[in-house]
Each structure stands twice: as C-alpha cells, then as structure tokens.
Write a structure and sequence with these properties.
By secondary structure, this protein is an alpha+beta fold. It has one domain (about 25-120). It has helices at about 25-35, 40-55, 95-100, 100-115; strands at about 65-70, 75-85. It has a two-stranded antiparallel ribbon. It starts with about 25 loop residues before the first helix and ends in a 9-residue tail after the last helix. Mean pLDDT is about 75; it is low at about 120-125.
Amino acid sequence: MSEPIFVSRRSPVYGRGSMVAASQPLAISAGIEILSKSGNAADAAVAIAAALNVTEPTSTGIGGDMFALFFDAKSRQVSALNGSGRAPAALTLERLKKEACLNYLLNCFASLCSRQGPRRRGRRL
C-alpha cells in the first residue's frame, strides 16, 4: 500500500537554526528579522502578531485574543497563556478610552516575553 499524497498549493520551507510560521509573508519577515537580531521565539511571536494587525486586519487585531504555549527547557514543562475573554457588560467607549484595551494585549505580550527569559547571547534588541 502506498503512502497517501498530500496536495497543497503551498511550497515546503526548510530552515536551519530557527523558523517562524504565519499566514502572511510580511509577518513572517518580521519574525525572521527579530530572530536574526538575536531575539528569541517570544520576541518573534510578538513581532509576527503586530505585523498581522497591519497585514491581515480582518483576521486579527489589537485588543483581540492571544494564546500561547511556552516550553521551559530547564523544567521541561509546558505552560499556557490564555489572554482571551469577553468584554465586560459595563464596558463603555469612555472606559475603553480611559483604560486602553491595548494595555491588556501588551501585558499579555510582556508576560510571554518574560516567560521566555533573557535574549539569546545576552543581547538586547
């Protein structure tokens, strides 16, 4: 019995040392650039998410949900970050402007980056 053939319009991509994945080439470029400047996986994920806000605004957006799985090599444990949820019933335009929902998303990104630990080779971006 022969193996099933998987037909796709996408070409395979091979990488050495690091890799990023996204649905949009410009977002991928942002992630690769961060990695090439000694950023880590969390830094690249944040850059990709930010780029997708511009390149695919109908698919994602600032203030949207954020999910991440993080593998800690030292403890060999996987932890999850769930930055999702419904807007509160008492949310008003005034409250949104005052509290800036952007802060929530940025806090989720910051949490992901802090879990990832220091930059590779100790360099800062």
